[in-house]
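Morning. Coffee machine broken again, so started the prediction first thing and wrote up yesterday's gels while waiting. Chain of 603 residues, entered below exactly as on the submission form.
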Amino acid sequence: MRFRRLIVCSILLVLVPAVPAQAEDPPSDKLEAGLAVDTGLVRAIVEVATPVPVEDPDVQVVLQPPAQPFMVVEASADSLDELADDPRVLSIRRDRAYPPSLVSSVKVIGADRAHAAGTTGAGQAVAILDTGIDRDHPFFGGRIVAEACFSAVDQGVQSLCPNGQGTQIGAGAADAETPACQHDGVNLCEHGTHVAGIAAGNGGVAPGANIIAVQVFSRVDDPETCGEPTCLLAFESSLLLAMDHVAALAAAQPIAALNLSLGGQPSATSCDDSEEGRSLKPKIDDLLAKGVPTVVAAGNEQEEGASFPACLSSAVAVGATDDADAIADFSNRGPLLDLFAPGVDVESSVPDDQTAVHSGTSMAAPHVAGSLALLKSAFPGTSGADLVEKLKAKGRPVTYQAGGAQVSTPRVDVYAALTDAPQQPPVAEPGPAPEPAPESPPTDQPTQQHTPIPLPTVTVTVTVTVAPPAAPASVCTRGTASNALTTAQWAVEITRGKGEIPDETLNCYLKLVQKASKVFPEVTKASSLGRAYRVLKASVGDRARLDGALLAAWLNWASGAYDSASAFAGTSTFKATVGAAEKARLSPKSTSAQLRKWHTKVG
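Came back before lunch.
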């Protein structure tokens, strides 16, 4: 089973008229790069101008939501190429899947003072698109007013909707305490309850606001995809349906914000024109036109940029700071971010009526979503876009260096935004450390000591029953290595018992690669240590050798040896060089000579 085909959502009906110019595009231009060289079945979103009856028995339609301009299918590359011949088909792209981005903080942003003044978010709602919610948790006090579930289903992919289907609407639809959420005594669906508690729990930012809980994740029981026995992933098709559902609800009830604490590929620039961006941005724009800003976690890759979909220009991208307004070491940062908010050691609700402490930009985003609920309850006639600008104008400036320039990103101060108080004085982050001296070329054996960034830990406090503390969990973020390793050295590191880097850190790096790369694991599996080792050791075939070099390059990025903007291959940046190499790898027209050229440059 391939990672990017885990879920295929299909839509047979369309709301837009046919566009002759698009219908005349060559079929190859309609296929996303890489689909033509895929050798297995692919889960894909097919955008259509008018309904397209699928007659090919080799094309399985797995989802047909009504009144949507797309359908989701599962098919081979050849069958997708034939489907693209139909003039009613506008484009075909992978149905991508995204993982979750993993309260003294209420005082940091001034929410406690807002509560004392009588502003609690009452009369507003916050939509939480996440892993569901603990419906009877005392944090929520009966304020969950709507529930829905859009959870993709496929081979090895299980719906998290309580009814076992791909869609469920109504009370109980977003329940996070179902058997499907359990694995070895652990609740896999904890994330959404924690996020909802920050935004609108009794101890959260907007304790008077209502909650709209939408389950958008699916359970994947595939170690080769997850790098562990099971994991949760949100597929693009599920997000599209969920956002349309919230947009429809906005016509009947006030919704102050939609929160997305999940993320995919990091980007240093706006991703509006990416394959995914062209699909998701119109949904965000439609919500904003209805008064509902989309607040998105910026990502935990420690990059100068934001992960998808926070990199979309109309999303509200939120990075993480600690309670002293220092940028969290794991947080993305830079001009793409709209706001910072507390995201280090944030205590909130988790299933089974408990609370837990987690860190991540996932925890920062709901501080902003809750703040918008407070503002909207105080200024109901002000547009969502203007309320976002008010938060940005009144936030405490955090200044730092990014991309060789000074950047200032406001840390949310909701009380100042409510009362029009002056901004708090700026806080300056220390500048970057000097570049290390050039190292001698690496040998065949690892010569460096990797020291991943110390990460915040997770502790669990049981509020109803006494239980042993849970094992600490860390934020998966990039490391701080100073030297790059060769392909052969990475193979040694991944070999059990031979390398110096702990397996936990290596698995974290592979998860980061999975989010950042177009090749892994869309075309080539490398989610587990065993699979990654085989990719690194492959020596037969130009594409296989290029895969090994690309995986080593991405591991060097994940370990911190390179940033996206680092000089690479002599005359370009890491992002530009690796991006061009992946484009060549994904093109069926690339010759052996071209593949060898990119292997030499990347390797």
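Residues 1-26, 433-472 have pLDDT under 50 and may be disordered. Going to sketch it on the whiteboard this afternoon.
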